[in-house]
Amino acid sequence: MLKKITVTVNGTEHTAEVEPRLLLVHFIREVINLTGTHIGCDTSSCGACTILLDGKSIKSCTVLAVQANGKSVTTIEGLAPEGGPLHPLQEGFKENHALHCGFCTPGMIMRAHELLEHNNNPTEEEIRWGIAGNLCRCTGYNNIVKAVQWAGAKMRGAELPNTEPEFRCKNARRRIAKYGAGVRISSNTGQHFNLSTN
Amino acid sequence: MIAQSFQYESPQTLQEAIELLHKYGDEAKIMSGGHSLIPMMKLRFAAPEAVIDINGIPGLAYIKEEDGMVKIGGLTRESELEHSDLLAKHFPIFADVTKLIADPQVRNMGTLGGNLAHGDAANDHPAVMLALRASVVATGAEGEREIPIDEFFYGFYMTALQHGEILTEIRIPVPPAGTGNAYHKLERKVGDYATTGVAVQLTIDSNGIVTAAGIGLTNVNPVPLRAARSEDALIGKPISEETLKLAAQYASEDCSPSSDLRGTEEYKRHVTGVLVKRMILKAAERAMQ
What we know:
Shape of chain B: globular
Number of strands of chain A: 7
Order of helices and strands of chain B: EHEHEEEHHHHHHEEEEEEEEEHHH
Structural class of chain A: alpha+beta
Order of helices and strands of chain A: EEHEEEHHHHHEE
Strand content of chain A: 15-25%
CATH architecture of the largest domain in chain A: Roll
CATH topology of the largest domain in chain B: Uridine Diphospho-n-acetylenolpyruvylglucosamine Reductase, domain 3
CATH class of the largest domain in chain B: Alpha Beta
Oligomer: heterodimer
Strand content of chain B: 25-35%
């Protein structure tokens, strides 16, 4: 039997009649049509579907849409106004090369959001335990940890950490001087990245 | 994965929830955090006709000290246990165990009552409750009854809860001074079920003699297991190489793990013994502080 629910998503109230077995992530993606929240494992392991439910990070593949009735949901789309400045976490991920394919990123950012809410100056260990429920298969996590620290610094008004990649290749600085920023550099180990001036 | 269709009920009072349990009979399941139930329903290992969501019932989530007991509401979330100052004071074991349960998002939903009522020997709280000698309160149409933890776990996903009863409270005796407790589990990766896990609580008097001991084991037995012979090996004696060795040996002999993807039976018995030793030492160290 269908059940009528009202959920406030990113500040906007949505009312819909849903089957009780509809998962919250399907409600968000297919009823509200907000596809920034991803479905990865569908078994509450990977964290790609992480959203905030009444301010707390949860895995929306393991919560029913009816459980969100009368509650407030925040998704990645709700972090920053469209066309406006990015949220410090989004900016942090961008500046610190904290994503490659980007599939885990919305969940990773929503989880980090609650983490920074409790503690805007977390240690590396606290961040790693804090994102223990979010899998990333590209980055190796190091730059995600840096991005969260960077966002924390920005949110508390502290000096921003250096975002230069740790990886250096021979002649990089000379090449920047010669060709300018944004040049694609290949290392002797076959890795590439684009150099930037900041 | 989509669960089989079910009727969803969200009662606003405990009485209403109990009435619904009677209305639907055996086909109803109580949902608290839902993080064991919903995955089972998605895999169609469970297909209840009705899900009774108790999250809308006020007053089921609390942590308080009363009458020499710490009382925890059945609907209290893992994340609330993790950050409770009251629990940190008497029971550092809760910080040990919650950090190892799943991950922060799951802990924002998962509840202590649900963890116990699920009756899964792979869950971590049963062993902790055995070590702390807790009891659980079941509320039904006839009122409340208190069940000692040793009489609570019956078999695979089976507990002493009768149909029409809801686990509403967990009571843990506040231990005397000189008590320490600790938990650790071996896990393949963060948030996994235990390969084996050990919970220990010890009370040690001013002469260094162990006067009380509780030891619970996770996921090495069909039901959560009290390592009774290991407890007896410690009581009335100081902690020594000899008592540690005996307690470890008894626990590895008395458990009954099965070989699976987490390890062979022999391996699990061995690691159980190792963890028993380590947790006794950690609990003893905390008892002396």
